[in-house]
Amino acid sequence: EAQVTQNPRYLITVTGKKLTVTCSQNMNHEYMSWYRQDPGLGLRQIYYSMNVEVTDKGDVPEGYKVSRKEKRNFPLILESPSPNQTSLYFCASSLSSGTLEAFFGQGTRLTVV
Amino acid sequence: GIQVEQSPPDLILQEGANSTLRCNFSDSVNNLQWFHQNPWGQLINLFYIPSGTKQNGRLSATTVATERYSLLYISSSQTTDSGVYFCAVEPSNSGYALNFGKGTSLLVTP
How far is CA A48 from the centre of its chain? Predict the structure, then answer.
């Protein structure tokens, strides 16, 4: 089954403790991205990747890192999480940017205390 | 940046009723998608529809790109249709991100 898989689905952590949210897609998509969803602010893009080793900032990249060493994986790294990064996170992928359907992972609910 | 406006913001329907959700956008787009966010927070793809009309069961969508709007029709609504419906667009002149509207929150009552 074609899908985008995020892990974990739920995470509660403490301020400053490094964490990684994994994202993997099995559709051989070139384009992957991360979004966060917050009440009143909607969904906003954090980072995106056009292909392996090609990443760029979205609208809200501060406090996040990404890497794209393999086509199928696009992990989101929070080196020193803070409470304002408490949010619902989504990973998305599409065959390429701009013209083709995007598919979203199940979401990761992160709480930073 | 591009503006994406959805209406109505909230909608309450009785089971079996029909509804139309609207999405207006302020600039030309390469990509337009409709999503349903269920009560568990998952974003479910409904339609990829940068132009034209598509149907999938009780749901259908129409996008008139030249007039910069899209409509999502839900017929014979069911309680499982409850949730938030999002329209998302990718502008033609500045790609790489889907820009989401604020959504329409739908509650279908028995």
Answer: 8
pLDDT of chain A, 113 residues: tens digit per residue: 889 999 999 999 999 999 999 999 999 999 999 999 999 899 999 999 999 999 999 999 999 999 999 999 999 999 999 999 999 999 999 987 666 789 999 999 999 99
Q: What is the per-residue pLDDT across B22-48, written as a single tens digit (0 to 9) for each?
A: 999 999 998 899 999 998 899 999 999
Q: Who's near B35: CB < 8 A, 6+ residues apart?
A: A104, B43, B44, B45, B46, B85, B86, B87, B88
Give Rg (Cα) of chain A. 13
State the amino acid at position B13 in one-letter form.
L
Contact with chain A for residue B42, Cβ under 8 A: yes
Residues A4 and B76: their CA atoms lie apart, in Å, by 31
Q: Which residues in chain B are closer than 8 Å to A98, comparing Cβ atoms?
A: 30-31, 90, 95-96
CB pair distance less than 8 Å for A104 and B102: no
Note whether A90 contacts B: Cβ–Cβ < 8 A.
yes
Q: Which residues of B touch A103 (CB under 8 A)?
A: 45
Other C-beta atoms closer than 10 Å to the C-beta of B54 total 14
Report helix, strand or coil for A85. Answer: helix
Distance CA A86, CA A89 (A): 9
Instruction: List the B52-56 sheet strands across, edge first.
Output: B4-7, B19-25, B69-74, B59-64, B52-56
